[in-house]
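Sequence, please.
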């Protein structure tokens, strides 16, 4: 449980909604709760450009703040970044360009089957 008694599942739904609202591509959810104590879910999303990546991350923050949840952190700010990370307590959102996503391949690194949306 995190701020305002939002469950990890509720935070996840709000984060995915925020990504979908601004046309995030290939949104993938990994349930990592059994593999780490740091978070329950990891969300990976692709943006079409560095500017889009930044906008997606910013929209996640603004959407969650409007629901009363203050993110713990936001890394990679700025239009020049190809990877933005938003820490939402029990959910961590990674937004990347296609090139960064292919290079880092977080899905393979965690080797966890994605959740169905």
């Amino acid at each position: 449980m995190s701020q305002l008694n939002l469950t990890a599942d509720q935070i996840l739904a709000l984060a995915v909604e925020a990504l979908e609202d601004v046309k995030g591509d290939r949104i993938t959810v990994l349930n990592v709760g059994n593999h780490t104590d740091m978070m329950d879910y990891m969300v990976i999303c692709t943006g079409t450009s560095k500017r889009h990546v930044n906008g997606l991350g910013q929209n996640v923050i603004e959407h969650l703040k409007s629901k009363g949840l203050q993110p713990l952190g936001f890394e990679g700010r700025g239009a020049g970044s190809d990877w933005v990370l938003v820490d939402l307590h029990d959910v961590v959102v990674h937004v990347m360009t296609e090139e960064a996503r292919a290079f880092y391949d977080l899905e393979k690194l965690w080797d966890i089957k994605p959740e169905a949306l």
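Residues 3-110 form a domain with the Beta Polymerase; domain 2 fold (CATH 3.30.460.10).
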